Amino acid sequence: MTATKPTGRRRLGLLRGRNGSDRDVMKSEEEWRTQLTPEQFRVLRRHGTERPFSGPHVQPDGSGVYRCVACGAGLFRAETKFESGTGWPSFSAGVADGVETRRDYSLGVPRTEVLCRRCGGHLGHVFNDGPAPGGKRYCINACALGDGREVQDPDPRGE
User: Is the pTM for the entire model greater than 0.90?
Assistant: First the structure.
């Protein structure tokens, strides 16, 4: 039996969830390019990093839920946001059903990548130098977060 090479979106690994299940939001590369700005596409779909201090949401403020700009999923509660001095929005925890992590070796050293669980968009990385009690710092690209926050319980499905 000859194995076939995966093609399209499956080969890119953009549609498989943590347990091998399909993502809730599946779009073609062209659909993502149409929906997102060029910078959002580069960060969310190509795993890029925006320049520090280049986006909104750097300073902690208010209450509510920060959402994925691509699919609307609830990602981070404003109450978990803190000033890290890095130039990127930082949070001490993600919404349980909103974010997922995986190992990233793209720079030759192991890091932990943070992804939107609903659409698979790259959000940033998590580090072990955050505030107590958890000690985590979710370092997130500002352009991956929606413009506004909704003051309600986060719905990871974006509904």
Answer: no
